[in-house]
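Hallway conversation turned thread

IA: we were arguing at lunch whether anyone had actually written out Basic leucine zipper and W2 domains 1a end to end. Turns out nobody had. So, for the record, here is the sequence (428 residues) and right after it the structure tokens. Reply here if something looks off.
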Amino acid sequence: MVLLGWDISCRICRFLDPCLPFETFPCFLADEKERFDPTQFQESIVQGLNQTGTDLEAVAKFLDASGAKLDYRRYAETLFDILVAGGMLAPGGTLSDDMTRTEYCLFTASEDLETMQAYAQVFNKLIRRYKYLEKGFEEEIKKLLLFLKGFTESERNKLAMLTGILLANGNISASILNSLFNENLVKEGVSAAFAVKLFKSWINEKDINSVSASLRKVGMDNRLMELFPANKRSCEHFSKYFTDAGLKELSDFARNQQSIGARKELQKELQEQMSRGETLKDIIAYVREEMKKTSISEQTMIGIVWTSVMSSVEWNKKEELVTEQAIKLLKQYSPLLKAFTSQGLSELTLLLKIQEYCYDNIHFMKAFQKIVVLLYKADVLSEEVILKWYTESHVAKGKSVFLEQMKKFVEWLKNAEEESESEEEEGD
């Protein structure tokens, strides 16, 4: 059958041919043209934005209602391009010449935090209403970050503020920041400048803890140095750049992360040296050299050494054999522990590490007292530090169990101390 003209109603179509599929009705085809034609889609969005203008509440309502008749799923990229730049973006970030545009978009809005927060709400409402847009929106942000060189400084600033707000509120994943590590953006300083605006708005919206948690979640907490070219990728340069930009908390975070990274590498190297059977003399020399290079304190270092020693072997699964294995290992490495417990505070740090380790590793619960006594006899732990730990400096982990284990030994230490004092008095 030949279809009737566009002005004929669906009822007439059905009357003339009851078997005619609904999707071939002219009225349906008219709706589908608007729904699936990219040009028609773009014109519909642009027209709606031109009508709502700068009233972002009206924009949000328009977008909410339009999702019922326009195919957001198919044209998500087109939708987001228009909302951000006013029209479809060509590769590199320039607006396509042959496409309809609107002057009412993110890039033409006022360059202030309040306006960017209002735009963030528009995107937030849209994505909450149409959850399937979430992935497409993240892909859009990644693309926009790669196009940064094609935007003006003002456009970059607005995008940075918006991105920071969206990150702070969990609307997008911090993994989108991977785009900022693009070699060309980094080389020309675009990434670092963009990051300043982004992190300022993020911290303003939440705090540095929000930044650190989000970066750790996606494994980017140690990658911020990559915002700079290789010849400027140092903690000193990073710290000065962001501190001068008013982001000292970000500088401190990056410095702390670098320190944590250095400690992990040091611990890994120590374990490898132990597994290779390096001499204690060589290991001690290496650790002392690293302390000088990285300015790590003895208190921090003894914690790293302890963890390295205890991670250097595969522990027996049977509790009764673990203690014997631990004593044998610690006898071997007691000179290494002694080399980095020259201060009372370092000794106490080690003793607290032992307490925490024995508590966290259930098979070691009964080994605590034997380990402490061994290290006392090896001159790693002094009686003063052991008594201080027992009376006031222990932590809560396994407190009752370990204090009970140490009770007799502590009594012995006290008696020995009293006898020593008595002998000194008699000598006087």
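OS: looked through it. The radius of gyration is 33 Å.
IA: good, adding that to the notes. Residues 1-16, 22-35 have pLDDT under 50 and may be disordered.
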